[in-house]
Amino acid sequence: MTLYGIGLGPGEADLVTVRGKRVLENADVVYSPGRLSRSVALEHVEESKIGDLDFPMTRDEEKLRAAWKEAAAEIAPNARAGDVAFVTLGDPNVYSTFGHLRRTIDAFHPDVELEIVPGVSAVTAFATAMGVEIEAGAGLSLREAANGASPTGPDRMILFKVTDAPATHEGLAEAGYDVTYGRRLFMEQGDTRVTDDPTDIDERDYYTLAYAEKADLEIEAATAAFQTDDEAGSDETSADETTADGEPVADGGRDLHEDELVSLEHTEGCEGGDCGGHR
Ligand SMILES: C[S@@+](CC[C@H](N)C(=O)[O-])C[C@H]1O[C@@H](n2cnc3c(N)ncnc32)[C@H](O)[C@@H]1O
């Protein structure tokens, strides 16, 4: 019998993975550490299966340790007798409360079997929600920027916990970053917002992140040239040389044999920048 740490994804019920949904449906008890994760879990399980845990709103480490010991003591017997789940938004191993539970279970209930079901993290979901591409070979750093902090240094950063966007923005703009903010991305609860203007989101909302990129960053992906060199693009690929999706094809449209496909993948992978880093 097992304790499952389940990542629920960013908030929309259908972004829970198939495996996560199956485990939730089969679990005897589903514990949630907060209101939002509880409401996502409720899209998949009956309310009678939800086991609420009480966590004090405190930074006092003694009190937090006591709360986690109490939570683990409540969960462990149920995880010995059956399957239970502990849900978190996003992924359980990314800036998540699940880490506290895992360490407490390991320390005080080491016989409990533990398994993790990864979830769609805000770390990756932001890219689609905000129309950003982190192309192969690029670096990307994860930082926190609570209470107006403006961490700087890396070429590209995702900043979590942006609770004072105008103050954070000031420091980032001064350091030469272009910044886009995303609030409640892929979330059913509350309004989703994507904006470059920090004053649009000046009221505090914990579910806010920022993507910061150095303004003078040069993107070196081979196909980036298509965005600036229209003429070259139209010379190289005529209308009938594209697939239905508009993707250029290598041979004017005829079906490729399998060995040609393998060779094409290899060439694109290496010469197109996916084999090695460019920065
Ligand atoms: C403690 S971290 C939890 C991260 C989560 N475990 C994950 O993998 O996405 C919380 C921070 O993640 C960011 N975040 C999480 N979900 C988000 C969402 N749906 N939209 C925007 N930001 C989100 C916010 O910056 C928030 O302050």
Automatic annotation (TrEMBL):
Say which species the protein is native to: Halostagnicola kamekurae
The pathway where this protein functions is: Cofactor biosynthesis; adenosylcobalamin biosynthesis
Protein's UniProt keywords contain Iron-sulfur = no
Q: Where is the Tetrapyrrole methylase domain?
A: 2-138
Q: Where is this region: Disordered?
A: 226-279
Task: Name the Gene3D superfamilies for this protein.
Answer: Cobalt-precorrin-4 Transmethylase, Domain 1
Cite the record's Gly residues compositional bias ranges.
270-279
Question: Record's PROSITE patterns?
Answer: SUMT_1
PANTHER family per UniProt: COBALT-PRECORRIN-2 C(20)-METHYLTRANSFERASE
Tell me one GO biological process term: methylation
- Provide ranges: composition bias, Basic and acidic residues: 252-269
**According to the UniProt entry, which residue ranges have a biased composition of type Acidic residues?**
228-244
Specify one Pfam family: TP_methylase
UniProt keyword list: Cobalamin biosynthesis, Methyltransferase, Transferase
One of the entry's Gene Ontology molecular-function terms is: precorrin-2 C20-methyltransferase activity
- Output this protein's name: Precorrin-2/cobalt-factor-2 C20-methyltransferase
From which lineage does this chain's organism come?
Answer: Archaea, Methanobacteriati, Methanobacteriota, Stenosarchaea group, Halobacteria
Q: Which SUPFAM superfamilies match?
A: Tetrapyrrole methylase
